[in-house]
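Same chain as my last thread, 211 residues:
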Amino acid sequence: MSTLLLQHADLLVTMDAQRRQIKDGALFVRDQAIEQVGPTASLPASADTVINARGMIVLPGLVNTHHHLYQSLTRALAQDSVLFAWLKTLYPIWARLTPDAVYLGAKLGLAELMLSGCTTSSDHHYLWPHGSRIDDEIEAAGSWASASTPAAAPCRWAKARAVCRPILWLKMRTLSWPTVAAPSRPFTSVSASAWCASSSRPAHPSPSRLI
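reply #2:
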């Protein structure tokens, strides 16, 4: 079982129920799971891998709740445009997206997120031209997992590919909050808007019971 010890952080921010901030903090990891967090003096003195975090602040990974990873490929275009001019410039380009483009855009976007301290992201991707699929993004994320944990990644990633979409579907079906369909683009037809209105359902329980 592999172990990792990060020690002597100037400040370790736990974000636990007590919101502890530990000076000269440390954390001990076994098989990619955090086992202990506390002052450096109270944790094991050695591990397979030891990181000296002196001069650093250690905190949980950030969460990005709204991303469009494929747009990483067109970030330099139409930068000075207002929204509608920007969309009119880029939609014809995005219409030519290929599976390779979706894969590379996701891989680039995820690398940038990791470099900025973000470890979880929700990607709001709604364009799937030319045979591109959600699997292309899943494969891109899996390539980073393979790079960081080569032994464990293949098995775990095969399982993730099998359960990813069913889990998302089940969550939408079982939550008691409102289910609302809405246009995701400003250039939406009247018929599409009507379908969104007919497909939405009221909250259960009703909002009055939640207040």
